[in-house]
């Protein structure tokens, strides 16, 4: 007997939801039944495009739909409330990154889902990008020797007058915030990816992040790992890129860079690249272009990767989520992973406040603001 359809409601129908829903078309056995958004025009347009039932609130969706799970794509400031409502109704939850803004919210989400015996799958979608997944396979197999340095940066924009952070509904004033390609909204992917690539925990952090509602600063995060590796992130969205035409690439999949969203087949003037340096070789991962380069003493060669470029990472993520629910096993990416990444992020802000390195394990829950 075939499995019955896996019935999902999507909460939050902003730009990232389009990428998710486009990808979900290829997932066998998935039925996107409902969508929730406060914006009536947006809600109705997405309903017509993707064929689900529109709702103006999570409560209305839960009251009127028979669902197995919810995909939470709302701003991070709402994740706890939406997740707890869905868990209370018996739904399994796939929650976008970051899991929350405050650690106590993230830990409460985990506790609620555990108490209600539902799965909470953390949306660390970079783990499903084929070029990055292949890079991890090589790194963990020792093909590049000991991993000693991992880095990523996104520096660009059109000057300070054109700078546009995500709004206060995403990141409330006074807490972590910034633009879509900043430390909080984007860098959280890399914090998780670096832990995943090395199989190691972060032992020390020095960093600085933008405070929501305040003037932007250059953001950075320097991480020491317990295997001896160093991770380095740098972000600035209010200056100008120094990338030259030769630095660009055509993107094999949909992409986000310092110029914003780009459809597959577009020219990326500032392609996102993850650099992984080992004692024997190095890897350059152009993750949205779905390209992987291996560099050693013999030169540079491009390695083949699975032909499922972005936004297929969201399909692969949904398939993993469905598998854990249908087989009643632990999520491939649990809430613990989201909490660990959030703890490193919050350690960067603590480091900036006290002017010294911070051990992320010392960062505890915070009072909900």
Question: Your description of this structure?
Answer:
The chain has 369 residues and is an alpha/beta fold. It folds into two domains: 6-126 and 313-332, Rossmann fold; 128-308, Dihydrodipicolinate Reductase, domain 2 (2-Layer Sandwich), CATH 3.30.360. It has helices at 15-24, 40-50, 58-64, 79-88, 103-115, 130-140, 187-198, 312-326, 335-354; strands at residues 6-11, 30-36, 53-55, 69-72, 92-96, 120-123, 147-155, 202-208, 219-225, 230-236, 249-250, 255-257, 260-262, 267-268, 274-278, 282-286, 291-296, 299-303. The strands form four sheets. The protein has an eight-stranded mixed beta sheet. A six-stranded parallel beta sheet has the order 3-2-1-4-5-6, sandwiched between helices. Strand 17 and strand 18 (299-303) form a beta hairpin. Helix 1 (15-24) crosses helix 8 (312-326) and helix 7 (187-198) crosses helix 9. The model has no long low-confidence stretch (mean pLDDT 95).
The Rg value, from CA coordinates, equals 20 Å
User: What best-fitting shape do the alpha-carbon axes yield?
Assistant: globular
Q: What structural category characterises the helix and strand content? A: alpha/beta
Average of per-residue pLDDT values: 95
| Helix percentage range | 25-40%
Q: What attributes characterize this protein structure?
A:
alpha/beta, 2 domains, 18 strands, 9 helices, eight-stranded mixed beta sheet, globular, Dihydrodipicolinate Reductase, domain 2, Rossmann fold
Give the gist of this structure.
The longest helix has 20 residues, at 335-354.
List the helices and strands and how they pair.
Elements: E1 6-11, H1 15-24, E2 30-36, H2 40-50, E3 53-55, H3 58-64, E4 69-72, H4 79-88, E5 92-96, H5 103-115, E6 120-123, H6 130-140, E7 147-155, H7 187-198, E8 202-208, E9 219-225, E10 230-236, E11 249-250, E12 255-257, E13 260-262, E14 267-268, E15 274-278, E16 282-286, E17 291-296, E18 299-303, H8 312-326, H9 335-354
Parallel strand pairs: 1-2, 1-4, 2-3, 4-5, 5-6, 7-10
Antiparallel strand pairs: 7-15, 8-9, 9-10, 11-14, 12-13, 15-16, 16-17, 17-18
Helix pairs in contact: 1-8, 4-5, 5-9, 7-9
């Amino acid at each position: 007997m075939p499995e019955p359809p896996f019935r999902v409601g999507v909460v939050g129908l902003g730009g990232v939801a389009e990428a998710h829903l486009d990808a979900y078309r290829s997932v066998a056995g998935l039925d996107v039944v409902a969508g929730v958004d406060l914006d009536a025009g947006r809600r109705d347009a997405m309903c017509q495009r993707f064929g689900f039932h529109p709702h103006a609130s999570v409560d209305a969706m839960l009251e009127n739909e028979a669902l197995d799970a919810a995909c939470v794509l709302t701003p991070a400031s709402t994740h706890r409330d939406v997740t707890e409502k869905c868990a209370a109704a018996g739904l399994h939850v796939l929650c976008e990154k970051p899991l929350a803004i405050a650690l106590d919210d993230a830990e409460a989400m985990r506790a609620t889902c555990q108490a209600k015996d539902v799965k909470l799958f953390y949306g660390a979608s970079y783990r499903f990008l084929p070029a990055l997944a292949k890079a991890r396979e090589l790194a963990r197999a020792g093909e590049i020797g000991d991993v000693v340095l991992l880095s990523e940066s996104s520096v660009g924009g059109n000057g300070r007058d054109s700078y546009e952070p995500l709004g206060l509904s995403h990141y409330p004033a006074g807490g972590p915030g910034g633009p879509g390609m900043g430390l909080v909204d984007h860098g959280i992917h890399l914090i998780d990816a670096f832990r995943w690539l090395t199989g190691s925990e972060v032992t020390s952090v020095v960093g600085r992040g933008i405070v929501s509602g305040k003037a932007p600063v250059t953001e950075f995060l320097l991480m020491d790992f317990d295997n001896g590796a160093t991770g380095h992130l740098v972000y600035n969205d209010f200056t100008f890129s120094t990338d030259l035409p030769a630095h660009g690439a055509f993107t094999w999949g949909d992409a986000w860079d310092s110029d914003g969203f780009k459809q597959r087949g577009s020219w990326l003037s500032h392609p996102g690249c993850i650099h992984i340096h080992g004692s024997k070789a190095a890897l350059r991962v152009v993750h949205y272009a779905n390209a992987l380069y291996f560099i050693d003493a013999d030169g540079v060669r491009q390695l083949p990767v699975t032909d499922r470029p972005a936004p297929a990472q969201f399909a692969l993520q949904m398939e993993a989520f469905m598998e854990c629910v249908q087989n009643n096993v632990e999520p491939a990416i649990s809430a613990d992973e989201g909490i660990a990444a959030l703890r490193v992020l919050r350690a960067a802000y603590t480091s900036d406040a006290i002017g010294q390195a911070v051990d992320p394990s010392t960062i505890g829950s915070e009072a909900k603001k």
